Amino acid sequence: MSDEVNWSGDYYNEGMNAKNSIFDKLGEECGVFGVWGHPDAAQLCYYGLHALQHRGQESAGICTNNQGEFHYSRGMGLVKEVFNESNLHDLTGHSAIGHVRYSTAGESKLANAQPLIFKYREGDLAIATNGNIVNALEIKSRLEKSGSIFQTSSDTEVLAHLISRSKHDDIVEAVKDALSQLVGAFAFLILTNDKLIAASDPNGIRPFTIAQLGSAYLFASETCAFDVVGATYLRDVLPGELLVLDRKNVMCKDSFAKPSRHAICAMEYVYFARPDSDINGINIHSARKRMGKKLAKESFISADIVTGVPDSSISAAIGFAEQTGIPYEIGLIKNRYIGRTFIQPSQELREQGVKMKLSAVRKVVEGKRVVLIDDSIVRGTTSLRIVNLLREAGATEVHVRISSPPFINPCFYGIDTPERKDLIAATLTLEEMCRKINADSLYFLSKTGMLESINFMPQGVNRGCCTACFDNSYPTKK
Question: Which reactions appear under catalytic activity for this entry (predicted)?
């Protein structure tokens, strides 16, 4: 029996991650949003972060710069829980950076909520990031031995210490010096008293985009955040690129490292990003539909209906249905109002915890052969529960189709994943997995099929995507 528990902390999602969630899905990353040159910077940040809420639900924060003076507010929980009319009113200024957090490095507590704010020899410094610094512990150990005192357990703080210790007084040069020492995946927003600096890792692993609203510049982890505020998307931040905005509202393009092997995270297209976002000019919904169509070509099975696990698998399920001609039906309903619970469930209820989140539509699946589309299988526990949900609702057959390759390796770049020994695809054969989740058949989309569906770069290693979780091909030194 599982010893997992429901949420029982003081705020929504306290301490929840891929290692202890009752829902067997990959942990979200984080989301960043930045504004430069707009009188309603904090309000724009609020709406932008709300659009990025799917990327992190543990904490949220905004820091503004009002003519060189910083104002900030951070808290645990959802954006709508952290911010209200009163504290947003206090966040004055024409520039701001914001953050929604899911803890992949560092504990789930207020001290680690971003943006992190620092006093620095040249003034104030606020930092927000999406991603993970692979060599953070190594750098932290070296800095502590030379006298640095860390206030958080977040790997983001490493950058602040490197900046403060740089031999360069000029903040841009200090940031470039600091970033050049980092290994990993990151999209940084750095706010100073007179500048906003944006930087993407040399592999471009984490998504990072630029837009314009009037004369103001905006930055976000996903383009869906621009749509909600009416901004016009310009382009993605390039790998190794450093962009600097000053008080003259001039954006200076620089770099801190030569672009390396381009390796945008494939799971952004498969699972993490919102369907209405575009990454590197590729619409997420369209890419997922192509994955579903490719999956149908690779693994056709005769059935009565196709259904997807909401929400990230719906696009692929539609593609599968269109390709096969099998009707798409809403066979599963997601409960969007779980919120938090203070109930400590019994062992039996823990095993059925997925029913809090999903319900089968009996009249749709009863007596039917069902093709169930999902985006990934991590441990397999939730897949088993969903298959059983459909069977309990009367499905005569359940054929599981996954719109990504088998997940066999942990991620070091900002996705919270179990250890390799806990990944079902790393320890069992396809036939064993099929039996484990109680399915009639099981098939994973090939890596080639996934990459062709994403359709990013025709040349380059893995067509410009990071596929380490599928093939052990990590774009950086681990």
Answer: 5-phospho-beta-D-ribosylamine + L-glutamate + diphosphate = 5-phospho-alpha-D-ribose 1-diphosphate + L-glutamine + H2O
Reported as a pLDDT band with limits 50, 70 and 90, residue 348 is low
* 3-state secondary structure at position 370: strand
pLDDT digits (tens, 9 = 90+) for 118-152: 988 878 999 999 999 999 999 999 999 988 888 88
CA-closest candidate to residue 126, choices 88, 93, 84, 98: 98
Distance CA(76)–CA(98), nearest Å, equals: 14
Q: Is residue 24 part of a domain?
A: no
Q: Which residues are catalytic?
A: 30
State how far the Cα of 306 lies from the Cα of 318, in Å rounded to an integer: 8
Binding annotation: 265, 312, 374-375, 411, 466, 469
Whether 204 and 304 share a structural domain: no
Can you say which residues are annotated as belonging to the binding site for Mg(2+)?
A: 312, 374-375
Give me the number of domains the chain comprises. Answer: 2
Owning domain of residue 233: 31-260
Same domain, 302 and 206: no
Indicate the pLDDT class of residue 7, thresholds 50, 70 and 90: very low
Three-state SS string over 138-181 comes to HHHHHHHHCCCCCCCCCCCHHHHHHHHHCCCCCHHHHHHHHHCC
Is 42 strand, coil or helix? helix
Q: What is the pLDDT of residues 259-285, one digit of tens each?
A: 889 999 999 999 999 999 999 999 999
